[in-house]
Amino acid sequence: MNESVDQNNTDTSVQPEEKTLYQQKLEKERSNSISIRKGGGILVGLSLLLVIVIFVLPLLVQEDKEDLPIQTIEEETILILNQEILAQKPIAEALLSELLIKIESLKLQGILFWGMGKWEDVLIMQQEGDSAFIEQQYDVSAERYREALQLLSDMEISIPDVLKNALESGQSSILNGNKDDAIASFEIALAIDGNNLDAKQGLDRALKLDQVLARTQRGKTEFELGSYKLAIELFQDALSIDPNWEPAINGLNQAKKSYADNLFLESLSKGYRSLNDESFDDAKILFEQALSVRPNSKEALQALDELNLKRIASLTKSLKYKGLIAEVNEEWNQAKGFYEEILVIDPNLEEVKESLNRVESRILLDAEMTSIIARSDAYNDNKVLGQAQALLGTAKSIERIGPKLEQSIQKLDSLIRIALIPIDVIFESDQLTEVTIFKVDQMGTFQQKIVSLRPGIYTARGSRKGFKDETIRFRVDPNKQNQRVRIICNKKI
């Protein structure tokens, strides 16, 4: 089975979701609501205006009835409220104002999402109070408003419990794999407290729940099929979306354990096959791999002991032969490795020690030849040139010069010969600049001067009173004629 996760299926990125019902309603409520801190007075004013329009205006109309016949006035007097009920009118008005403010305040705390039947009861009480007020039953109206306020206060007190229950319900719904219920619960929590971190994280988990469930289920399927590596990848993919998803955490732990057990047995089996083929290095890697999976495993430790016994019996002879072949091919580092490996097995083999000293000398010589050849531009320095000439002599004195060393000798000899042949270089200046070639000569001032220089890298400096010094590096190319160097100090201090 393919042990890789389909990239399309494991994409953990979550596309932006459409606004939830809570988000849409809350935005609408907030856009239409007046801030409690700024709008409390406005709400009171509006409520008073409402009272005036609905309740005072009829009284004004009633006053106009004074012009009616005496008989009509007498009939109206029957409708005069008793003084006790009339005294409840300002109380009802104040309660209504307080009620309206409390309603708007609780709307901002998402009461429309969690109030349910109690919220409907409040609205009914308010309507009953309004009707009673219109009918001038101010005592009834005040009582209804008072009951509505008390119910709202009780609901307000219960907000912390509602928030707690919503968070707990949301978490429980996630654990049960119920996406819709989880979203609804966390939206209630956010309606109460829009900055609640647990609610935000919970809602995010709920919105991604389908992806997490799909990857977790695939992981379980692959685990049951024995595809432990693929199962691990799927569980890890699920956890990359929701790090707290316990089914994926448990599945990952199980898959890792099964994968480790399988790897242990497979490593031991392959290790013994390599051992029988005398592929000792491969066997060692595999046995050590098994030991890393199960530290202190008796099976793995025993396998390593068997490996060492067989290596001591057969490896020494094989490595000696490989070392000699490497020497013939001038593969000195390789030969050194073979001899060192032999000495790890048996440090007392004098013959191998001598071979190791020999190849280390050749390694050093090759390194020095490579280094001095790379420094050919410095042969204009007599010290460096002397080192190159001395090393060339040492290399030529080797008894058995192989093709690689011979090639290096010829290369170094040619570079030395070239370095000894001077090249004419044309220097140009302005007759005002003092020119000096480091380690060569002070040239003074001039307009043009020809100097014979050995190939290599040089540094020249120009000096002029009142001007900044000019320093340049230039290379004398042995294969180029009429080389020119221009140095002028023209930048004032």
Question: How would you describe this protein?
Answer:
- This protein folds into 4 domains: 21-157, no CATH class; 211-295, Serine Threonine Protein Phosphatase 5, Tetratricopeptide repeat, CATH 1.25.40; 326-420, no CATH class; 423-486, Carboxypeptidase-like, regulatory domain (Immunoglobulin-like), CATH 2.60.40.
- With 493 residues, the chain is of the alpha+beta class.
- Helix 2 (36-63) runs antiparallel to helix 5, helix 15 (280-293) runs antiparallel to helix 16 and helix 16 (298-328) packs across helix 17 (332-345).
- Helices cover 68% and strands 8% of the residues.
- It has helices at 21-32, 36-63, 70-77, 83-86, 89-107, 111-114, 116-134, 138-157, 159-175, 179-192, 197-207, 209-224, 228-241, 246-276, 280-293, 298-328, 332-345, 350-374, 382-396, 403-419; strands at residues 423-428, 434-437, 441-444, 448-453, 456-463, 470-476, 483-486.
- The chain starts with 20 loop residues before the first helix and ends in a 7-residue tail after the last strand.
- It has a 4-stranded antiparallel sheet with strand order 3-2-5-6, with no helix packed on it. A 3-stranded mixed sheet has the order 4-1-7, with no helix packed on it.
